[in-house]
Specification:
five-stranded antiparallel β-sheet, mainly beta, three-stranded antiparallel β-sheet, single chain
Amino acid sequence: LENAFQVLSLTSYNSNCTPVINLHPSYVGVTAITISWENTGAETYEIGISDNGTFFSNTTGLTTTSYTYSELDPNTIYYFRIIKSCNDGDYTSTSAIIIVKTLPAL
């Protein structure tokens, strides 16, 4: 996990829907990364992945606190963020962005 670096800033905060905490990679491989976070009482989560830190591709409607991305490129940096939805989507908060690098191919 030494290839993971966390950017310590929230991108969106709503006091009615506090953002997820303890966002971290629980698995890092050559072509896969599992991202996990602490359950903070959301109805649903949305996870975003980006290879440049700007344009995120989002997976929506998650009710679990981890998600695995596969078929990633080896030795590549990816950016991840979680958007938490509360009160039937009336409120959202976006986590800090973490940066994780897949392992190099052998």
